[in-house]
Amino acid sequence: MADGIQRLVVVGGSLAGLRAAEAARQAGFTGDITVVSAEEEHPYDRPALSKQCLLEGVEAPTLRDDDPATGLGVTWLAGHGATGLDTSARQVVVGEQRVDYDALVIATGTRPRQLPGLPAAAGIVTLRDARDVPALRAGLGPGKRLTIIGAGIIGAEIATAARKLGAEVTLIEAAPVPLQRALGRHLGLLFSEWHGESGVDLRLGASVQAVQADNGAVARVVLGDGSVIPTDTLLVSIGVVPNTEWLVGSGVELAGDGSVLCDEFLETSVPGVFAAGDVISWPNAHTGLTARLETWTSANEQGSAAGENAVVRVEDRQPYSTVPYFWSDWYGHRIQFTGVVTDREPEVVFGSVESRKWVALFEDGGRVVGALAVNEPSKIMKDRRRIREGMSWEEAREIYRALSARVAVGAS
Questions:
Q1: What are the CA-CA distances from residue 149 to residues 48, 174, 224, 239, 303 (Å)?
Q2: CB–CB of 24/307 below 8 Å?
Q3: Are 53 and 60 in contact (CB under 8 A)?
């Protein structure tokens, strides 16, 4: 363990913060750990909010079977978000309280971006934490009219749940191609067809001119082309904003988007202060980019890396890099993606698009750099490993040619 570190403070009690505390203990840290969590609940699995929580009305599964305070031997300050950071005094400000630290991990995550000009009306919702689920689910029954602004991953998952529960859904996207940054133009266009097939009214390249209310409740959305969408519930899903206002003036350097800038060890510009999860931008050696990853997998991995690096000796710290990975469930289908996209159209190397069971690969510089699997969960982690190892494009294609041949023989 690092000399002089007796008190670790983790700000943020969700996935990345929990993993940081766990990793510190697993690394052998026996000092005091304090977790400052704005939420009252024990850490829970956020991806479930837009899936089974909406569909089944159940609570999100917790990330640990026990009380994390007891199980990890930590002080868990629930329901109290950090309000400031004094790096000179090495103190986290929590309202009127000051919490001393020797090492600190920032894991405060993000919050939904707000749409300017919205009226103060019932039925306008976002989805970020468990407290948002009941109001949204109340608007997803038969005959209810749900309008979603933003056709990203979360918007698509909520549209899926809404259609299954019988709601009428209109999905509004400002871009001409949804999910182009995450999946590329070709796949973005391909998956946009699923919405129409499932009865969702998808409006691409559409701008919102006004959101109108009647009798204190949202009633309609007016688009830039003049069309009017009657609405009982309006979900705004247009991205997120890092929760870093409490760091202003602390000396912790922030990027232009408000995220915390970290080095390859997930340490910030202030020595002894680390960060992890949706709230950070860091140089990913695998992609060569300094950027933010808003995925469950990166928050899980980064939390562990930051928690360990915060308490070990400097010479024992490990750099963190990753092959990005995320998954989503749309209309009864599992979509998984790993790596990065390119401008080129990906090649389908296994199965067929028509069968809704297939794998496609992205190539760049003679190597496979990205992989997408639809309803083929056994394939994607092998592709993630191949991308990490720098496998050549031809070798990756040959693996799938041989696999396809074996499947064809078995089916004959």
A1: 20, 8, 13, 10, 31
A2: yes
A3: yes
Angle at 50 between CA 275 and CA 376, to 5 degrees: 90
What span, in angstroms and rounded, lies between the C-alpha atoms of 408 and 402? Answer: 10
Backbone angles phi and psi of 398, in degrees to 5: -65, -40
Closest CA to 320 of 112, 108, 110, 105: 105
Single-letter residue type at 8: L
**Cα-Cα-Cα-Cα dihedral of 365, 386, 362, 179, to 10°?**
-130
Please check whether residue 172 is in contact with residue 150, taking contact to mean a CB–CB distance below 8 angstroms: yes
Q: Provide the 8-state DSSP code for 392.
A: B
For 201-243, write each residue's pLDDT tens digit.
999 999 999 999 999 999 999 999 999 999 999 999 999 999 9
Is 333:373 a contact under the CB 8 Å cutoff? no
Which residues does 223 contact at the CB level (< 8 Å), separation at least 6?
172, 203, 206, 207, 208, 209, 229
Q: What is the pLDDT of residues 108-124, one digit of tens each?
A: 999 999 999 999 999 99
